[in-house]
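Worked Example 4.2. Consider the chain below.
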Amino acid sequence: MNRISLAGLSCLALILAACGGSDKADSKDKITVPKDPFPSTYAPYPNPSVFIANATIIDGTGALIEKGGLLIENGKVSAIGKDLAAPGDAKVIDAAGRWVTPGIVDNHSHLGVYPSPGVTAHGDGNEISGPVTAEVWSEHGIWPQDPGFTRALAGGVTSLQVLPGSANLFGGRGVTLKNVPSRTVQGMKFPGAPYTLKMACGENPKRVYGYGNGSYPGGAPYSRMGNVAGYRESWIRAADYKRKWEKYEKEGGDAPMRDLELDTLKGVLDGDILVHMHCYRADEMAQVMDISKEFGYKVTAFHHAVEAYKIADKLAEYGACSSMWADWWGFKMEAYDGIKENIPMVHKAGACAIVHSDSDIGIQRLNQEAAKAWADGRKIGINIPEEEAWQWLSLNPAKSLGIDGKTGSLVPGKMADVVVWSGNPFSVYTKADQVFVDGALMYDRSDAAMRPVMDFELGQPGEGDLK
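Applying the procedure from the previous section yields the following structure tokens:
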């Protein structure tokens, strides 16, 4: 019988290694799943230094500064407070009698995927081909020419999350945008913002699939039981997919076949993608929190959440935001128990309260929506200072999108996303005078040349110059 010496074995090992005979994959040959295959190309518009003087400033963290100053340099908040002096190279805006706030962040919008004009050809927000469509991304349906973006800008909105619709159990990825004109959606993408996953519970998915009609496909789920089974089945498949990739990354061998749907769900389980869930009823929100604990992910925000007031303590303990309307209720059964005091009651319980739009009209007046909720709270004895309530429009939604380290409050070093209001922004008579995005003046109510007009509007009546 032939024998191989130890020296021979050593030589054989060297030969195998040189020929790639090891069962461990070379790290440079590893297949990886790109986390950001469509990266942001956003760059701020020109942003010379600006000093806003003599303003009543809400800083977004809960503080109010009377007769304060705000210095913007290199697109960032440079200084804020009283008794500040303007540098010689800064343009000075005298805001005496006016108010200054962080720009509004709307964390529930469908601008771009349901653009104006609202015709069937423009409807790209719901991929209703199946109840689980986590493989689709809202950014691939966004039309940057949507005139709704500039209308929202005139209402003080500087950043927004564009979500798929709520027809599906898993509707797809959402994307966070800077509200600036751009030829491409990538030119609007908020740099460094994590992706989100839109999910929906309740009546919508069971109606679209369970009953169907001439427009909808029908099929499961038919019930709330079917909804929950659909979530759990998908998370089971996602957990298995995650294990296969982890094994491949550790041991090598053949890489798993990529699955776009499961890439997104794995991203949630890895903590890279934030879950935003359309959910009205308190009992369903409680069940969804239990499901998230079963599979090891977190719901970042419940949207619409008209019954959040019933479980505000549970939401605070769990750590989810509630993204709500001021007074929309009763338009379907799961919205029947909505109350006008919902937002202030959630805030009072120590939970994260947000005012959102879900509307191309409401997004133009979100300051008024917050004012309504604030006033309804006062009527029942919940006295929240205006400067604290403003967090519903800026810092809290920014937190829900994972961008609060960059925007949402007027803190030195953060993006200078700033609105100068004609008066108290909680007044129905107040309008945005100037809107800055990263320190660049993007809208000026007193200067027609500083009111963006989309190319699509050119030649149309009014040409979009009055907003």
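The longest strand covers residues 64-73. The longest helix spans residues 224-251. Compare this with Example 4.1 before moving on.
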